[in-house]
Automatic annotation (TrEMBL):
Protein name: TetR family transcriptional regulator
One MF annotation (Gene Ontology) recorded for this entry: DNA binding
InterPro entries: Homeodomain-like_sf, HTH-type_Tx_Regulator, HTH_TetR, KstR2_TetR_C, Tet_transcr_reg_TetR-rel_C_sf
PROSITE patterns given in the database record: HTH_TETR_2
Alphabetical list of PANTHER family matching this protein: ACREF/ENVCD OPERON REPRESSOR-RELATED, ACREF_ENVCD OPERON REPRESSOR-RELATED
Lineage: Bacteria, Pseudomonadati, Bacteroidota, Flavobacteriia, Flavobacteriales
Key words, A-Z: DNA-binding
DNA-binding positions: 26-45
Ranges where the HTH tetR-type domain occurs: 3-63
UniProt key word Cytoplasm: no
Gene3D superfamilies (UniProt xref): Homeodomain-like, Tetracycline Repressor, domain 2
Amino acid sequence: MKPTRKQEIISRAASLFNERGYSAVSMRDIAKAMDMKAASLYNHISGKQEILSSLILEVAETFTNAMQQITSEEIASVEKIQKIIEVHIDITVSFSENIATLNNDWMHLEGEDLKRVVKMREDYEENFRSIIQQGISEGAIKQNHPEVILFSILSTLRNLYLWNEKRGKMDVNVLKKDMVSVMLKGIV
């Protein structure tokens, strides 16, 4: 199915945001990249804030839905963490420019969209933290501080889009296998 003009605009804007950052991109820049007049953009989109919201909310909702699915499953905590890592990799590979915008420009959201994204992020991290704590309680995860484990895993996963882009986009199955192994078992 051919993307709509609005989807094309959002996609092109995502590339520009990724290259220059949200603040450095104007509607005129987006129009130029689309080979159209700036005024014509407004026939399809209300402004940069709508584009930003679309990019960020799409990926934030994808993460949220995946986490809800995983937390509802009756599986061991380590298996849940493995699935979370794999989902992060899938989402990063599928939505790398959205991830860049989410990581770098979320603070430019306004009003209810900002509140919604912050809430989704807090809930996501709390669910992940709970899974880690459950694994520690069960003896399946070493007695390391849950915040250190959470930070270590999420920092790596949040920056995967940069690393993968720089390295020439590794095979997703290799990423999943090796990243899960390194994150869950370490390197020694």
